[in-house]
Amino acid sequence: MTTTGSSSDMRQRVGASRRWVVKVGSSLVTNDGRGLDHARIADWVAQIAALAGQGYQIVVVSSGAVAEGLVRLGWQRRPDTLNGLQAAASVGQMGLVEAYEREFQRHGLRTAQVLLTHEEVADRRRYLNARGTLLTLLDLGVIPVVNENDVVATEEIRLGDNDTLAALTVNLVDADLLVILTDQAGMFDADPRGNSNASLIDTQRADDPALLPMAGGGSGALGRGGMRTKVQAAQQAARSGAHTLIADGRSPAVLGRIAAGESLGTLLTAGERKLAARKRWIAGHRQTRGCVHVDAGAARVLRQSGRSLLPIGITRVEGDFRRGDIVVCTDPEGRDIARGMANYDAPEVARLAGRPSESIIDILGYAGDPEFLHRDNLVLI
Ligand SMILES: Nc1ncnc2c1ncn2[C@@H]1O[C@H](COP(=O)(O)OP(=O)(O)O)[C@@H](O)[C@H]1O
Ligand SMILES: N[C@@H](CCC(=O)OP(=O)(O)O)C(=O)O
């Protein structure tokens, strides 16, 4: 199998990247289906705490709620009904966050429980709120522990496996790297469960079409998506500009060794850098819901330095857009300059236009973002 670029340089760069989403699968976090494996959780937490001490920002996506719920409820097997699963997940989620909180506390770190659904990408207002909260937690040095909000997720919108959820989280926080810890050494060219001579893939581009046919959808007794959802998650992460590393969560000091650039597991690389990926994502939203006219000064700043658009530079608002919608900015001559994701609803912007960001709290009664269009959510036309 071909590999991309110089694998060892790439590994060094990946290890040195600072913002990671670390996904711990059901296959690992549960003790053969008998509740949570506390010793393993303690070990990953110690590794994450060490990385946090070196300046890494890490979001944990952990499975295990259903398995822990089954134990707490004294159920011998997974229920068949959605409500049964949801009940188990809500009981077990308590144990899951308790376990992470206790272990992180030993290292002087705070944790936060974040429960997400598919809606957090589908609805752009929710997207911005989830993103804002997660980024604030990271700024505060808190370790977010994410799981799917199984209780409210209906059959149609359930992500089901946490690989997909981890990729969504990568997009939400603009992570550099998605680490998927599982019960295999990485991705093999065939499912090693049924093929004893399957060989481990070292490095490959995430968008290589040869990957998916090699990934079996069948998971272990506890996991959900098998390797298939991991490859799809890597492809989704790559579209956000993040690389993915699939590795064995049981191998000693696995996270520290990834940080050190050691060649372990399977690296699935992204073809483009994360800011470019994000801008392409914004640019891809062809449908705009409104327009803000900006003064000559703001137009110059946008064009020349690609900075954020603040309310003070806005002169007039058109359309009935809401926070999260894509709007167009036009200069005083009526030329379109940029397209971006609105941080405020149109009536709010009308009130904020021409005013300094420090006065937002007095005008709206709450302190929202200082920018109307943040530079990360804005593309020049
Ligand atoms: N090409 C492959 N390489 C490695 N593992 C594979 C492959 N295809 C299928 N698998 C299966 O995927 C399983 C891991 O997925 P899963 O059980 O869903 O775990 P997790 O809970 O970690 O997400 C492995 O145990 C393995 O049997
Ligand atoms: N949200 C579920 C986990 C879903 C799941 O098992 O996903 P995965 O670890 O990707 O196989 C739970 O906490 O039980």
From TrEMBL:
<dbReference type="InterPro" id="IPR001048">
    <property type="entry name" value="Asp/Glu/Uridylate_kinase"/>
</dbReference>
<keyword id="KW-0067">ATP-binding</keyword>
<dbReference type="InterPro" id="IPR011529">
    <property type="entry name" value="Glu_5kinase"/>
</dbReference>
<keyword id="KW-0641">Proline biosynthesis</keyword>
<feature type="binding site">
    <location>
        <begin position="182"/>
        <end position="183"/>
    </location>
    <ligand>
        <name>ATP</name>
    </ligand>
</feature>
<dbReference type="InterPro" id="IPR001057">
    <property type="entry name" value="Glu/AcGlu_kinase"/>
</dbReference>
<keyword id="KW-0418">Kinase</keyword>
<keyword id="KW-0028">Amino-acid biosynthesis</keyword>
<dbReference type="InterPro" id="IPR015947">
    <property type="entry name" value="PUA-like_sf"/>
</dbReference>
<dbReference type="InterPro" id="IPR005715">
    <property type="entry name" value="Glu_5kinase/COase_Synthase"/>
</dbReference>
<dbReference type="InterPro" id="IPR036393">
    <property type="entry name" value="AceGlu_kinase-like_sf"/>
</dbReference>
<protein>
    <recommendedName>
        <fullName>Glutamate 5-kinase</fullName>
        <ecNumber>2.7.2.11</ecNumber>
    </recommendedName>
</protein>
<comment type="function">
    <text>Catalyzes the transfer of a phosphate group to glutamate to form L-glutamate 5-phosphate.</text>
</comment>
<comment type="pathway">
    <text>Amino-acid biosynthesis; L-proline biosynthesis; L-glutamate 5-semialdehyde from L-glutamate: step 1/2.</text>
</comment>
<dbReference type="Pfam" id="PF00696">
    <property type="entry name" value="AA_kinase"/>
</dbReference>
<dbReference type="InterPro" id="IPR019797">
    <property type="entry name" value="Glutamate_5-kinase_CS"/>
</dbReference>
<feature type="binding site">
    <location>
        <position position="162"/>
    </location>
    <ligand>
        <name>substrate</name>
    </ligand>
</feature>
<dbReference type="InterPro" id="IPR002478">
    <property type="entry name" value="PUA"/>
</dbReference>
<feature type="binding site">
    <location>
        <position position="63"/>
    </location>
    <ligand>
        <name>substrate</name>
    </ligand>
</feature>
<feature type="binding site">
    <location>
        <position position="23"/>
    </location>
    <ligand>
        <name>ATP</name>
    </ligand>
</feature>
<dbReference type="Pfam" id="PF01472">
    <property type="entry name" value="PUA"/>
</dbReference>
<keyword id="KW-0808">Transferase</keyword>
<feature type="binding site">
    <location>
        <position position="150"/>
    </location>
    <ligand>
        <name>substrate</name>
    </ligand>
</feature>
<keyword id="KW-0547">Nucleotide-binding</keyword>
<comment type="similarity">
    <text>Belongs to the glutamate 5-kinase family.</text>
</comment>
<dbReference type="InterPro" id="IPR036974">
    <property type="entry name" value="PUA_sf"/>
</dbReference>
<dbReference type="GO" id="GO:0004349">
    <property type="term" value="F:glutamate 5-kinase activity"/>
</dbReference>
<keyword id="KW-0963">Cytoplasm</keyword>
<feature type="domain" description="PUA">
    <location>
        <begin position="290"/>
        <end position="373"/>
    </location>
</feature>
<dbReference type="InterPro" id="IPR041739">
    <property type="entry name" value="G5K_ProB"/>
</dbReference>
